[in-house]
Amino acid sequence: MTIEGINDDITVSVGVPTLGEPQLERQGNLTLLRNMLIGKDFHWQRTVEALLPGEVEVNGKGECGVLNRLPVEKYLECVVGSEMNPGAPVEFLKAHAVISRSWVLGKILKTHDSSEEGKVDLPDRIIRWEDTCDHDGFDVCSDDHCQRYQGLQPIPGPVLDALQATAGEVLTGADGRLIDARFSKCCGGRTELFSSCWQPHEEESLVSFPDPWCDMEGLPDGDKSKVLSAILKEYDLENGGGYRWTAKADGSGIRRNLLVKFGRDIGEINGIEVLRRGASGRATLLRVEGSAGRIDIGKELMIRRLLAPTHLYSSWFDIIPDEGEEKSWILHGRGWGHGVGLCQIGAARMALEGHSYTDILRFYYPGAEITRGAGITREAAT
Predict the structure, then answer these.
(1) Among 113, 122, 294, 297, which lies 20 to 30 A Cα-Cα from 59?
(2) Alpha-carbon distance 31 to 262, whole Å?
(3) Tens of pLDDT along 311-367?
(4) Counting Cβ atoms within 10 Å, is residue 97 exposed (0-12), middle (13-18) or buried (19+)?
(5) How far apart are CA 62 and CA 55, in angstroms?
């Protein structure tokens, strides 16, 4: 369907994971969730308390123990506060509100591709991805698999005013349809194509191009720290923004991950090799050689899961044998996340240097238009 506008009362259903049975306490017109699980299966996994607006109920199915239904605009206010610090540049927060609205409406209205075409599950080759359409019983989840939603966050009045100024705005393509407005933490200097990460086709406005904005390597340490601390949550600051990083992958860990995460055992791991890279340089197909065979693993998220206890920061890396230890490799990488669409760190730096939210959106989603209106309902998609 084309976008002629957005009804102010359209709601979103959010699945919220918890650590153990949900611990809920009603507080006026809000619900306190004492054990929300965030960063699930990532190295920053932890539990937090969250104040949830809207309707809240215990979900008896799956890993998301709580269902939270609330108006889309209230959800977006929470998302922008959850994804970034409230002290982030206002123009960046406005840009994020527009892309988050575009993205979540695509999930509610089911305008995005959810096909399984291209997935492979063979003894010697596994091609998988996890898309944000893979939920059953709710529209989106509250964690990084979709976009961060940690309930009501403290947002200063001027920032809230700025977010309300973009209310109802979405990104549309030349045909008037919502674009699939993806985003990641740091692209590492070049954005990636949709097909490198999900279904084997391209999406309008999700193209690969150089991005100089997330490169803060030339800034003095104090300035770099100031920029990052204004943008990132405390637990996101641990890797310095993700523009460049180094990790170690050892054969025993890769063998364990192959068995536990993919159900394969090819014996002692002797080597790893990138067979295919995306437009940015991210690995999209990795060959693993073992004493009892070999296997090819893709796409980028599966490679990140294979080579680390949880996830690598990204699949854009070079492989160097570790001279100090047999059957291990040093990975020199760049970027944090899949790299498709908007780069959060780059976009925030654009805002800090005086660019408007419309400048940011035009840079990261070439050809997309900002559309505003009222009238779209959930029922319009059925």
Answers:
(1) 113
(2) 38
(3) 899 999 999 999 876 789 999 999 999 999 999 999 989 998 999 999 999 999 999
(4) buried
(5) 19
